[in-house]
C-alpha cells in the first residue's frame, strides 16, 4: 500500500500544471495573455498552445498547424521563467474565452481557461499585472489599516 501511495504522489508531483493566467491590453484592440506554468524537471521540452474552443489560435509545437484566420492575428511564445505569452490582435468586442494548454512529451496536457471582457480589460503595466495576480495580498493590505483603526477607537 505504501509503495502504491508513493507512486501516485510522485506521479502527481511530477506533472505539469498551469499556475496562473493573466491578461491585459497592449493598446485598445490588442490582448496580451501570460500563462505561468510549472513542469517536471524530467523533460526540458515543453509546448504551449492557446485555443478558443476547438480553434487553435497559435502554438509553439511545430507539429500542429495554426487555424488559418489567426495566422496574422495570434502569436504564442515561451519566455524564461515558465511563461507562455499570447499576443492577439484585433480582440473582438464583448467576452471571449481563451485557454492556455501546456504539454510535455509523454504527459497529459494541463490547461486553464479565462474569460476576457474587452470593456473591462486593463492596460498592460506592472500595476495591472499585480492587481490580477495578487488580489488576496492587495485585499489584506487594504483591510489591515482599517482593522487597526477600529482597534484604536
From TrEMBL:
One of its GO terms (cellular component) is focal adhesion. GO terms for biological process: cell adhesion; integrin-mediated signaling pathway; positive regulation of focal adhesion assembly; regulation of cell migration. It comes from the Eukaryota. Keywords: Cell membrane, Disulfide bond, Glycoprotein, Immunoglobulin domain, Lipoprotein, Membrane, Signal. It is found in: Cell membrane. The keyword Calcium does not apply. GO terms for molecular function: GTPase activator activity; integrin binding. InterPro entries: THY1. Residues 1-15 form the signal peptide. This is Immunoglobulin V-set domain-containing protein.
